[in-house]
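Entry 12.
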Amino acid sequence: MDIWTEIKITVPVTFASTANAIANMCVPYGIYTEDYSDLEQGARDIAHIDLIDEELLQKDRDHAIIHIYISPKENPAEAISFLTERLTSENIPFSLDQDSCNQEDWINNWKQYFKPIPVGNKLLIHPVWEEKAESCDRIVMELEPGIAFGSGTHETTKLCLCALEDYIFPGCTMLDVGCGSGILSIASLLLGASHATGVDIDPLAVKTASQNGMLNKIADNRLTLLHGDLTDKVSGTFDVIAANIVADAILSLSANIRQFMKKDSVYLVSGIIDTRADEVQAALENFGLKKIRREEDNGWVLMAFMQK
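Predicted 3D structure (tokens):
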């Protein structure tokens, strides 16, 4: 069984968002955060309960713990060095702990922190291992993220899901570049798209997305999943294109994205740290696109573009 390295970063809750952004630069998967600062409010708003387990009430409310898992194929010392340098440069007080764990253990471990979560005005993301939650007339998406990026809890994914509510229309087609768990593709179909195409460079992500499609009873002819690098295996044009990936990949993808866009297509880009948003916007405008929307959440930016 593969032995992974777990790195735990403890920071004051006021620095949790920035530390999360730094942690997400290390790995595109296997990251979760323990933050109990709004435990009572979250229990009422999301779980609709007032009675909270005594063990949870004893948790530290002043600090967040960010868990990162490093593959046995990677060098954890590099991640620790990077984290130390970036956290120090941002003047974030922190402590780092390192341990070993089995892959199966950490996959199951983070699940206890992933609860049903309402997103936007229409969707409820529901982990398959949780008891059925009250939907409150929302569209329920069943999700088993595995270790593929995309559980709906991260700001970049939430920004995309909220934007999709505004741009997906009945019968439209959608392209999801860097589909991860398939959350954006499947959300688009549940919101009314007739067909979605998801592509990811990680074969495990493609497998996970396929399984999530089946969990949500998506017909095979409505969801196409491709294993490839960005759009190298994609053909055709789409009404909505989403790329929830890192800034450098967005820059590479966007140089030729117009060939996949219809006249009135909307192109959503997310996963962009706020310090690089202006750079990304300028590059996409040079590629013949115009910005029609910008949203920000905890230092992460989503932008929407159309053709000029």
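Annotation: The CA atoms of residues 181 and 209 lie 5 Å apart. Residues 39-54 have pLDDT under 50 and may be disordered.
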